[in-house]
Amino acid sequence: MNMPAMKTETATAIAAPTANTVASPVVTMTPKRPPRAEKYIKMAKNTAVQVVPPLIVIALLMLFWELVCRRAGSSLPPPSRVFKDTKELIFDPFFDRGGIDKGLFWHLSASLQRVALGYSLAAIAGIALGTLVGQSVWAMRGLDPLFQVLRTIPPLAWLPLSLAAFRDGQPSAIFVIFITSVWPIIINTAVGIRNIPQDYRNVAAVVQLNPLEFFAKIMIPAAAPYIFTGLRIGIGLSWLAIVAAEMLIGGVGIGFFIWDAWNSSHISEIILALFYVGIIGFVLDRLIAGLGKIVTRGTSAG
Amino acid sequence: MQAYLKLDHIDKTFTRGNATTEVLKEINLTINKGEYVSIIGHSGCGKSTLLNIVAGLTNCTNGCVLLENREVNSPGPDRAVVFQNHSLLPWLTVYENVRLGVDKVFARSKTRAERDAWVMHNLNLVQMAHAKDKRPSEISGGMKQRVGIARALAMEPKVLLLDEPFGALDALTRAHLQDSVMALHQKLGNTILMITHDVDEAVLLSDRIVMMTNGPSARIGEVLEVPLARPRKRLELATNPGYLKCRQRVLEFLYERHRFVEAA
Prior knowledge:
The complex is a heterodimer.
Chain A: H1 9-20, H2 36-69, H3 79-91, H4 104-135, H5 137-150, H6 158-166, H7 169-194, H8 198-207, H9 211-249, H10 254-263, H11 267-295
Helix pairs in contact in A: 3-11, 4-5, 4-7, 4-9, 4-10, 6-7, 7-9, 9-10, 9-11, 10-11
Chain B: E1 3-16, E2 19-32, E3 36-40, H1 47-55, E4 62-67, E5 70-71, E6 81-82, H2 94-105, H3 112-125, H4 141-154, E7 159-163, H5 171-188, E8 191-196, H6 199-205, E9 208-212, E10 220-225, H7 234-237, H8 241-257
Helix pairs in contact in B: 2-3, 2-4, 3-4, 6-8
C-alpha cells in the first residue's frame, strides 16, 4: 500500500501495528487540518506549477530573438528595440491627436466595437437559422448545401462585394465580421437542436408546451453546449477577420494601425500591435468559454 | 362500472421504405376508474409502443383510444407519463422540473402561490421536498424517478402512464419505490397503466395483468385478475397462495406458451 500523501504521524500510527501484526481494533485518528500557512504554501506551489513553465519559455524565446536580431543590419528589431521604440505607445494608449493619430486604446476599441456589432448580429441570426435548420427537415435540405458552399468563401472575398453594396467602410467591415462568424454558429446550433433527446421532446409534448415555450425552455438549454461551441469558434474567426478587413477599409482600427505602421516602416509598432491582438483574441475566447460554462451549468450531466 | 379508458381495436404498423412491420394487432382493453393495470410481455412485443399510443406520442394505424368516451390522439397532461429513464430536464432543479408542468396545466386555475404550494405538496408525496433545489445530476436514480412521478402526479392526470418506471433501478431501490407507488395509489386512487417485464412487480402492484404475445403482430394473449386484497404487503404475499398462483399463471404464459424467441 502506498500512501505518499499521508506523511503524517497518523500514517505511521496505522502502519506500525499492521506491520507488527498486533491486533489493535481502533486507531484513533487525530483530526488533521494543515495549518493555514501550509495551505497558502500549497496554493502558491500550484500556481507556480502553472505559471513558471510558460514564463521560462517566454524568457528563452525573448533571449533567442534578442540574440538573433541584435546585430546591425538585421531586418527585424530585437525586443529591446521594440520596447524602446514603442515606449510612448505602451505608456500612453489614450492620446488623441485627431484623424488616425490616436493611442492604441482607441484603435483597439474601434476594432472591438465593429466585432461586437457584427458578432452580435451573427449570434442572433446564427442561432435563429441554426434552429430552423435543426428543427425542419425541409429547411435543412434546402439550406444546408447553400451553407456548406458559402462558409468556405474566405472572409476578405466578401469585402469588395459588401463595399459595393454599402458604399461605406464601416458597415462593410461589420458585414465581413458577420458573414465570417455566422457559419459555425448556424452549423453547431443545428447539430445541437438535432441532437435534443426524444425524451425531452416527449416531456414537452405531454406538458403541452407551445412552440415558443418549447424553443425557450427546451431547445435553447438543451442545445446550449453546442451553441456555445459555435459561438466560441465564431468569436475567434471574427477577430481573425477584423484585422484583415480594417487593413483594406482604413480609418481607426487595429488592422489599419498595423498597415499604417508598415507603410511608415515602424516595425516595432507592428510587433506591439500583434502582441495586443493576440492577447485580446485570447481574452475574447476565454470570455465566451466562461459564459458558456456558466450558462450550460448542469446541462451536459444527465 | 363505466369504462374510463378504452383502447378500441388498435393496430399499429410501422412503415420504413417498402418494408412494413405490423407491431400491434387488434388491441382491445377497457380500464376502469381507479384501476391499476399492468401490461407485461417480452421485450420487443410492442408494449412501449402501446403506451406511447395511449399517451398520444405515437399515432395508431387503426382504432382509437377513448378517455371518458372522448377520443384522444395527441399528448396531453390528462395522460401524464413517467418515463423509463426519468427524463428530467438536467438544467432545471427538482422543483423547476415539477413546476414546468404545473405552470402549464394550472396556468389559469391556480394563482402563483397556489401553484408553488401544489408543487411542494407533490414533492412531499414522493418524499423529495428536501431536494427541491438540487439538479437531477446531484440526486440518485431512485430519487430522479420519484421526481418523475411527482411531475406526472402534479399534472393531476386522469390516467397515469408508467413506462417501465423501475426498470433502471437496483433491486432494493426498486422495491422501495414500488411500495411508494402502491401507497400513492391507495391514497390518491389514480387510474394507472404500467408497462413492465417483471412478473413479481406486475402481480404485486396490479388489479389486472394484461399479457401480450410476442411480436410481430402482438396481441393481448390473456388478461389475469389479481384478486388480492389491498393494502398489500410484500412480505406477507411471499407465502400467500393467491399471490403464488397469479405469479405461476404469468410465468407459464411468458415462459411456456409464449417463450421469447431471440431474433436471428
